[in-house]
Design a protein that fits this description.
Pfam family, one: DUF4313
Largest sheet: 2 strands, antiparallel
Radius of gyration: 16 Å
Shape: elongated
Distance between the termini: 54 Å
Strand order of the largest sheet: 1-2
Low-confidence stretches: none
Number of helices: 3
Organism: Agathobacter rectalis
InterPro entries: DUF4313
Protein name: DUF4313 domain-containing protein
Mean pLDDT: 89
Helix content: 25-40%
Length: 70
């Protein structure tokens, strides 16, 4: 049980938003699971939010380039 969101882990995995690492961290009376999030899926769902997050942490993303074919 993750504090007041008992179904959050199922939601994350069912929607391919992240993968459980097997690690947890206790804070007060709660124990929280550590997830590695699927950045591509998060960017697909919320590109503006990901841009803001990456700018906030000082990460610059290379522009996507598409292969040209004839």
């Amino acid at each position: 049980n993750v504090n007041d969101m008992p179904d959050i882990e199922k939601f994350i995995t069912d929607n391919d938003l992240g993968e459980f690492t097997g690690f947890t961290q206790r804070s007060g009376f709660c124990e929280y699971p550590l997830y590695l999030f699927n950045v591509d899926k998060l960017r697909e769902l919320c590109p503006d939010g990901m841009d803001k997050y990456e700018a906030n942490i000082g990460m610059t993303r290379k522009p996507e380039t598409k292969d040209l074919s004839r």
